Amino acid sequence: MPADPQELLEAAERVMRRAHVPYSRFPVGAALLGGAGAIHVGANVENAAYPQSQCAEASAIGAMVAAGETRIAAVAVVAERVEHCPPCGGCRQRLAEFAAPDTPVYLGRPGAVPRVTTVGELLPLAFSADALPGGGAGAE
Ligand code: THU
Predict the structure, then answer these.
(1) Distance from the CA of 58 to the center of ligand 1, in angstroms?
(2) pLDDT in tens, 68-79
(3) For residue 48, how far is its CA from the centre of ligand 1 (angstroms)?
(4) How far apart, in whole angstroms, are the C-alpha atoms of residue 93 and residue 76?
(5) Largest Cα–Cα separation, the chain
(6) Is 69 labeled as catalytic in the residue annotation?
(7) φ, ψ for residue 90 (rounded to 5)?
(8) Which residue of 40, 43, 66, 74 is 20 to 30 Å from 87, comparing CA positions?
């Protein structure tokens, strides 16, 4: 039973409240609907050594893979300090590793109407395992 967008956005908002953001004060939460129907969440985790910080999407992907899931069916990203928080360039590539181009991405802000886009719209002409010799060694 796939989660509805609202459920996914609420999960992203809940985990956003757990973000570790003492430097940017810019909390972000991400929720991924996995192919098997479970929701996997993550928040941004910053570090005093700034480049070691991790985006919410990367945290959620880590949780998803740790749970044994490798397919993303839908994405929600929630932030409260901007109208919509589109995934950064690196996270678009991370999402594209596990999601088809038509995978919906819901960009939310608490109390606001979400903006809907897709992984393919966020990252056209994506580099993928298809470009690697043999489709990428060991790629599933
Ligand atoms: N951030 C995310 O977690 N996801 C994004 O897609 C954009 C940016 C975080 C990184 C950093 O902790 C804070 O937002 C400000 O850039």
Answers:
(1) 10
(2) 999 999 999 999
(3) 15
(4) 16
(5) 46
(6) no
(7) -60, -40
(8) 66
User: Beta-carbon neighbour count of residue 50 at 10 Å?
Assistant: 9
List the CATH number of the domain containing 84.
3.40.140.10
Our count of domains for the chain comes to 1
User: Tokens 């996997």, residue?
Assistant: 40
Q: Is 53 in the pocket of ligand 1 (CB under 6 A)?
A: yes
* Nearest protein CA to atom 14 of ligand 1, as residue: 26
Q: Which residue has the tokens 């941004």?
A: 44
- The pLDDT confidence band at residue 3, using thresholds 50, 70 and 90, is confident
The minimum-distance atom of ligand 1 relative to the CA of 91 is 6
Query: CB neighbours (10 Å) of residue 22?
Result: 9
Domain of 124, in residue numbers: 5-136
> Closest Cα to residue 42, out of 18, 6, 68, 72?
18
